[in-house]
Amino acid sequence: MTRKSGCTLAAALLAVMAVVCAVIVVGLHHAAAPVADGAAPQPHATLADPASAGDWVAGWATSPAAGEPNTRHGYPGMSIRNVVHTSAGGTAARVQLSNLFGVAPLTLTDVTLGVAAGPGGADAVPGALVRLAFDGRPTVTIPAGASVLSDPARLRVPTAADLLVTTYTRDPSGPVTYHPMARETSYLARGDHAGDVEGTAFTEQTPYWRYVTGVDVWTADATGTVVAFGDSITDGRTSTVGADHRWPDYLAQRLRSAANGPRLSVVDEGISGNRLLSNAQPDMPGNGPSGLSRLDRDALSQPGAKVLVVDLGINDILQDPRTITPEAVVAGLQAITREAHAHGLRVVGSTLTPFGGTRGWTPRLEAVRERVNEVIRSGRVFDAVADFDRALRDPMAPERLRPAYDSGDHLHPTDAGYRAMADAIGLDTLTGAAPAGV
């Protein structure tokens, strides 16, 4: 080869490399599509397949509980900025939106996902807000009773970070699907402010999550998801607002800090007032469908779900005091285990926590609780047991919560009590195959 032909070939190769590099840069720019501070959000912040190795896991989730009262027309002309806290980070994300309790189609004309600039605030990190698409389109219509999953969006999601999921709709839509016991402050604004990086337009605070029911992350940091499935004690009813001090939050912290522990995300699928066997009573719709009826939708279908941690049964005892039996509660819990095994999930179940001193407590109901716990501890219900009863009870009065763990209503724990619950879960119990039967 002559020097001239060699130079020509080198020049050609350099030209090809320049074109390839340009394509890569442009491709990454369109895939990331961040909203710069003060700039309009990009319309198609999506990617067909995440570029980095990993898998989808549920980073945050909540259970749709009911249609929000007094929202017959929904929130037309309003932006709703939901603040949620993810337990796992990744390089891409997608969002689940629900119209489960709607009675008419819900059209969302603008939906964004961003990383919050600070805990609990409405401001996004500049350059870390993306507009979501649905089958490549920025607008989506969700039929009544249905849900939708956004296209993946390339966004670097930090571990244990607050995220902002903002929706905007122009039109009346009917009752709003919501989760009333968020224990987190979210925000409302008039007009379309979904793409706002600064949160100054979001002047109205709200204690609810609306429409959003999940954020999945594409990650190599977590190999699966723990789904916490329960009632108000799992929902964190008396935990400090905005502090992420529910027991599933504390469990997620333990998993992140364990040097050799399983690498699992944790999501909270608790509903306050939820019962294992029966749907919510008409006067308490926010208590949601029964645990048995919502199991597949809220828990077993979560991306990456590997372990189910179950804490249900107290409300069946308290709300059905004349008819409830230990056999009925045990049978319901065993049905959950069988269904979880059919989906390949391992099941860790908790003993029922003390509620002596609360309104409605009687010696007969205490006997029901103790009998259920006896069967749970025998190993005939779950693959492994988290003894929440032993972790929380007062040694001098075992039918009651330890005073330091009693929020004051003699049923729900304090933040310290929620931490004690998380500490009662052996991290080694979260691993292992799901047996064929219990």
Outline the structure in words.
- Residues 1-22 form the signal peptide.
- Keywords: Hydrolase, Signal.
- Helix content is 24%, strand content 27%.
- It is an alpha+beta fold and 438 residues long.
- The protein has 2 domains: 55-214; 223-430, SGNH hydrolase (Rossmann fold).
- The strands form 6 sheets. A 6-stranded antiparallel beta sheet has the order 7-6-11-3-13-14, with no helix packed on it. Strands 1, 4, 9, 10 and 16 form a 5-stranded antiparallel beta sheet that branches.
- The N and C termini lie far apart (75 Å).
Looking at CATH, which topology of the largest domain would you report? Rossmann fold
Cα distance, first to last residue?
75 Å
Weakly predicted, low-confidence segments: 1-49
**Oligomeric state of the chains in view:** single chain
Strand content: 25-35%
CATH superfamily of the largest domain: SGNH hydrolase
> Looking across the biggest beta sheet, what order are the strands in?
7-6-11-3-13-14
Can you tag this structure with a few keywords?
alpha+beta, disordered N terminus, Rossmann fold, 2 domains, 438 residues, 6-stranded antiparallel β-sheet, 9 helices
Q: How would you summarize the topology of this molecule?
A:
Layout: H1 3-32, E1 55-61, E2 66-67, E3 78-85, E4 90-98, E5 106-108, E6 110-116, E7 124-131, E8 140-142, E9 147-149, E10 153-157, E11 162-169, E12 177-179, E13 186-190, E14 204-206, E15 209-210, E16 212-219, E17 224-230, H2 232-235, H3 247-257, E18 264-270, H4 291-300, E19 305-311, H5 314-319, H6 326-342, E20 346-350, H7 363-377, E21 384-386, H8 388-392, E22 393-394, E23 397-401, H9 415-423
Parallel strand pairs: 17-18, 17-19, 19-20, 20-21
Antiparallel strand pairs: 1-16, 2-12, 3-11, 3-13, 4-9, 4-10, 4-16, 5-8, 6-7, 6-11, 12-15, 13-14, 22-23
Helix pairs in contact: 3-9, 4-6, 6-7
